[in-house]
Design goal:
Radius of gyration: 21 Å
Low-confidence stretches: none
CATH topology of the largest domain: FAD/NAD(P)-binding domain
Structural class: alpha/beta
CATH class of the largest domain: Alpha Beta
Helix content: 10-25%
Mean pLDDT: 93
Largest sheet: 6 strands, mixed
Number of strands: 25
């Protein structure tokens, strides 16, 4: 049997394992390696458990580890891959070498953490809570504090706003501080952002723009957050979703990488010095995406775009000829009775990059 090793259990990795196991169970020996303590769950649902729309974090789990084992997929959890040896076609974890015929790098995203004083205080959390264990720790922390809490969220991406509304539903005081000129600057034009801001203010969520975090103060835990000359009292600080592709492992192995992630070709094969590495694919948010509007490389971290690359990788492994067409980078945000849907480019992006209409794809 051919050995298929997948690094990562998110939307860039686990769907590849499931698809290949479904159609070629007797051809591939499949191993998925993940640092996570939970698999096959929807992290996008975490704010809605917090809000109370979903009864428990357990409801976010789609399949158990046993389900995958029965499907012929071995999963190594709480395990980090330390090295990729493309010459000998093997990976190393916990001082153990594992050979592969095919390798899928699906390491996902990392969050930029601001380098400010006080960042290590208790009460500082990421708004991108990636695992169910982290979500449970967050719940445990806020349940031990007095109510209502003064909560500051730095950033206004989709999940940031959903957490804001979820915590508001729980009776806490919320302030959103966005460093850009308006809310959701990577998703909305100013006129639409104003509509979202008015809505948030109507449900008593305060919005501050054009302020960037400079310092966190407190004794043991966060008590105040400073934004230049503006100081806000806080019991809880949630750092907004400022993502970048997680390429540390791929870069150390010599793969071509940049700010958009691991460089891939139209078959999602990972490149080394511009050439496809034998048997190696990159999938999910850690790999380059093609913006279908501009036709250029981009960084897109949404599950819908990651699944597209998973599909291409799966088809290559199944012997189906297919190529990446690109993504319009769709996203949905649900805020009580306000739903926000975005896709494509904002006016600001078009003007900043000086795109001409005849050079865009429609």
């Amino acid at each position: 049997m051919e050995k298929l090793v997948i690094i990562g259990s998110g939307s860039g990795g686990l769907p590849v394992a499931s698809t290949v196991a479904k159609f070629r169970k007797n051809q591939y020996d499949i191993t998925v390696i993940t640092q996570d303590t939970d698999i096959a769950y929807s992290p996008c649902g975490i704010p809605f458990v917090l809000k109370g729309d979903i009864p428990s974090y357990k409801y976010l789990i789609m399949h158990s580890k046993e389900h995958y084992r029965e499907s012929g997929i071995k999963i190594l959890m709480k395990t980090s891959v330390e090295e990729i040896d493309t010459q000998k076609k093997r990976i190393r974890y916990e001082n153990t070498w594992l050979d592969y015929n095919y390798l899928v790098i699906a390491t996902g995203t990392a969050q930029r953490v601001p380098k400010v004083k006080g960042i290590d205080l208790n009460g500082v959390f990421s708004a991108h809570i990636k695992t169910l264990k982290e979500a449970e720790k967050f719940e445990e922390y806020i349940s031990c504090l007095k109510k209502p809490l003064n909560v500051i969220i730095t950033g206004s991406s989709s999940i940031d706003l959903e957490f804001a509304v979820g915590l508001k539903e729980r009776g806490h005081n919320i302030i959103i501080v966005e460093k850009g000129v308006h809310l959701m600057p990577d998703r909305l034009d100013n006129d639409m952002a104003e509509y979202v801001q008015r809505y948030l203010q109507s449900i008593d969520i305060r919005v501050i723009t054009m302020h960037e975090i400079s310092e966190i103060t407190g004794t043991g835990r966060v008590e105040s957050v400073n934004f230049g000359d503006l100081a806000l009292p806080a019991d809880l600080l949630m750092l907004g979703t400022d993502f970048m592709p997680e390429i540390t492992l791929a870069k150390s192995a010599g793969f071509d990488t940049d700010k958009y992630g691991v460089d891939i070709d139209e078959k999602s094969r990972a490149l080394i010095k511009g050439k496809a590495a034998e048997g190696v694919y990159a999938s999910g948010a850690c790999a380059h995406a093609i913006n279908i509007v501009t036709g250029k490389q981009d960084f897109m971290y949404t599950g819908s775009t990651s699944i597209q690359k998973s599909k291409i990788v799966s088809e290559q492994l199944l012997g189906i000829d297919s190529s990446i067409k690109g993504s319009a980078n769709p996203m949905i945000t649900v805020l009580w009775d306000l739903n926000i849907g975005t896709t494509g480019l904002t006016k600001q992006e078009v003007e900043k990059k000086q795109y001409r209409s005849e050079n865009l794809c429609y």
